[in-house]
């Protein structure tokens, strides 16, 4: 069994803080997405809860004692989902702010 070092303790503490922060961010982004639903801003905000949910779950996977220290393949898949959702969100915000969007009715 490997002895616990200060670095592993700090890493676990930072993961716990990250988990708490992304949980709060998920909640606020979900409220914003629901609040602006049906508007152009709502369409741009819609991917944000997916981003924060994927980040929260990936941090939770790394904190679970049965998972590898780096989280394994699950974390890679979850971060892939988050990156795609971030790209969609960025594209929608740029399209909205540069007025290159299509009006959907």
TrEMBL record:
Keyword Membrane: yes
Superkingdom: Archaea
Keywords, in A-Z order: Membrane, Transmembrane, Transmembrane helix
Transmembrane domains' residue ranges: 12-33, 45-64, 76-97
Name of the protein this chain belongs to: Integral membrane protein
């Amino acid at each position: 069994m490997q002895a616990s070092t200060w670095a592993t303790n700090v890493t676990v503490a930072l993961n716990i803080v990250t988990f708490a922060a992304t949980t709060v961010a998920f909640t606020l982004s979900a409220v914003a997405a629901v609040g602006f639903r049906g508007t152009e801003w709502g369409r741009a905000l819609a991917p944000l809860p997916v981003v924060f949910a994927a980040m929260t779950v990936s941090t939770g996977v790394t904190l679970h004692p049965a998972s590898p220290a780096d989280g394994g393949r699950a974390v890679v898949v979850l971060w892939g989902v988050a990156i795609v959702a971030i790209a969609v969100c960025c594209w929608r915000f740029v399209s909205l702010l540069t007025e290159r969007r299509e009006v959907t009715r």
